[in-house]
Design a protein that fits this description.
By secondary structure, the chain is mostly beta strands. It has one domain (about 5-60): Beta-grasp domain (Ubiquitin-like (UB roll), Roll). It has one helix at about 20-30; strands spanning about 5-10, 10-15, 35-40, 45, 55-60. The chain has a 5-stranded mixed sheet, with no helix packed on it. The longest helix is centred in the middle third of the chain and has 7 residues, at about 20-30.
């Protein structure tokens, strides 16, 4: 069984360790948590969510302006 999950940001795939929190994975990839919205199976998830083996999480860039 796979012990990793996949994060996708702007078409690029990142393999991350399953069992860690989403926040931990984002920090290791040097992605600012406040710069992305995280979506798993069509549902928004928070950065304290545990990453499960074999899953895919899409990271959608947040754009702000003024």
């Amino acid at each position: 069984m796979k012990s990793t999950a996949t994060l996708i940001l702007r078409g690029k795939k990142y393999d991350v360790k399953a069992g860690s929190t989403l926040l931990s994975a984002l920090n290791k990839l040097e992605i600012l948590p406040e710069s992305v919205i995280c979506v798993r199976n069509g549902d928004l998830i928070t950065e304290d969510t545990l990453i499960e083996a074999g899953e895919t999480i899409k990271l959608v860039s947040v754009i702000s302006g003024g």
